[in-house]
User: Fold this.
Amino acid sequence: MIRIVISGAAGRMGRAIIALAREDPDFKIVGAIEAKGHPDLGKDAGTVGGVSPLDVQLSGDLAQVIADADVVVDFSEKGNSLACVDIARQAGKAMVIGTTGFSDEEIARVKEAAQEIPIAWSPNMSVGVNLLFQIAEETARKLKGYDVEIIEIHHNKKKDAPSGTAKKLAQVVADATGSDISRDAVYGRQGMVGERKPEEIGVHAARAGDIVGEHTVIFAGSGERVELTHRAHSRNTFASGALRAARFVAKAPPGFYTMGDVVGE
Assistant:
């Protein structure tokens, strides 16, 4: 049995992970964390997650509960996530990180910690999305010279834009075509921007309603276009991927892993 602490436990993803882990005999939830001052602190994590009580109270301090854990599963916000990385590193515990919005410097900080503990990080824990990364890479190679536009849609509560998944898709396309993402990515367009440059990789974000997540990569050439789309119907697809990653890092040596490693890319 893998003992897990869930960071961001009262959020949308945290509640989904609680619900799935509660029913999975491979896992035992031994801790649940939220930001200090959160209104649900002190409540039973199972109740917060919409399942039967777990006899685990929602805490504001990972350091108080990490000793009993094998893996910390984090879906919070980047400031809290980085603090969790430091605590997990000190405690010698594995981590799964699904939090997005990290800068390159912050990812470097996570990779440094991964020299001492196993960490699986991905902007999207969906197995289908990680297949999309591979398909987009192959398509970009085969359709080199086609215009590439990436469109992502999420619920109206999502704070970062574009999504980490859209950024990853843009990077995958850039790597496959020899582009420089820092130079060629265009994030939205407004006003008299002139004709589209051939090397541009457009990335566009929409926020509306309760949309779980949708990503489309458009390859458009003369007289035709190819569209690759992934639509998430439920957060359970991400929660299931996160638990799959937790199984992986629970047995893995120290290192920085992606979902490609987890699913055996």
Observations:
- Residues 2-121+235-262 form a domain with the Rossmann fold fold (CATH 3.40.50.720).
- Residues 92 and 166 are 32 Å apart (CA to CA).
- The longest strand covers residues 213-221.
- The mean pLDDT is 94.
